[in-house]
Specification:
The chain starts with a strand and ends in an 11-residue tail after the last helix. The protein has a three-stranded antiparallel beta sheet, sandwiched between helices. The mean pLDDT is 96. The chain has four helices and three strands, in the order ββααβαα. By secondary structure, it is an alpha+beta fold.
Amino acid sequence: MKYWAYMTTNRPNGVIYTGQTHELKDRILKHKTKKYKNSFSARYNVDKLVWYKEYPTIFEARAMEKKLKAGPRAKKIACIETMNPEWRDLFYEL
């Protein structure tokens, strides 16, 4: 099984949501359809996948999620801009 850490946003340099999952396409689709109406991602409309990284275990994906959440915003932006300098919605490229 594959696992991912990922970040979504509402617009370039906007609100950033960080998460991890074992079903990346399905999880991002849930963000896009606002399946959980009262969630942070639904309230702030953070449904554009701007960064993701695959990991072989859930433990590594969770560790990266925690590292990103605990770190400064500048580190999140650096990760995004290294992979995706235009802040494109990568969901459609999966």
